[in-house]
């Protein structure tokens, strides 16, 4: 059967409240990090482009909303999101939530406030990343891993704890903070059984959905920004057609 996808446009928390209990098998979430900047004021007043796009970037991708919360607001907001995700996910299902180094601690807190069992932290190594004068290169982001209660350990699935993959470039770059399908998302979706359903509350340009649909999994996504919602819809349609051939 050709995998299906549903892509909602709207606020994640509002849309999640409309989804039925235990209707997905895994959640892979890449929320706005609400990070960057040296001070809280800089994080709240600078656009996503200003925080996450270097001055020499060769693209003019649109900004996205929801990236100006302070730390306390981010914890409350993400906790509410993950509470809804827990309700929607079947018992034993997995949760993977991206963060940078600044937000790794509060993301792990939100996961546990949301009722998930924290299973650990996965590392995404970025071969192309920003150097730090006099210090260490910011060459990694992090994925907090949780489960809805105990999970099934019987499948023959062994995934690494560190992934190394570069963000898409050139014409393949469709979003400011786009994650790579090859080498990262195509592996992460394996926590969802084949034929199951992956939920992404922050679909962006649809990369998680492309990885899911391309591997025989169904997908439910939510995206607030109109431009990126259309980009995600087009990419998901192309992925579905490729699988159906």
Automatic annotation (TrEMBL):
Species in which this protein is naturally found: Allokutzneria albata
Domain of life: Bacteria
Chain ranges of the DNA methylase N-4/N-6 domain: 24-232
Annotated stretches, region: Disordered: 29-52
Designated name of the protein: Methyltransferase
Record-level GO cellular component terms: cytoplasm
Annotated coiled-coil segments of the chain: none
GO MF entries: DNA binding; N-methyltransferase activity; site-specific DNA-methyltransferase (adenine-specific) activity
EC annotation from Swiss-Prot or TrEMBL: 2.1.1.-
Any single biological process term in GO: methylation
Keywords in alphabetical order: Methyltransferase, Transferase
Transmembrane segments: none
InterPro entries associated with the record: DNA_methylase_N4/N6, DNA_methylase_N6_adenine_CS, RM_Methyltransferase, SAM-dependent_MTases_sf
Family: Belongs to the N(4)/N(6)-methyltransferase family.
Pfam family name, one: N6_N4_Mtase
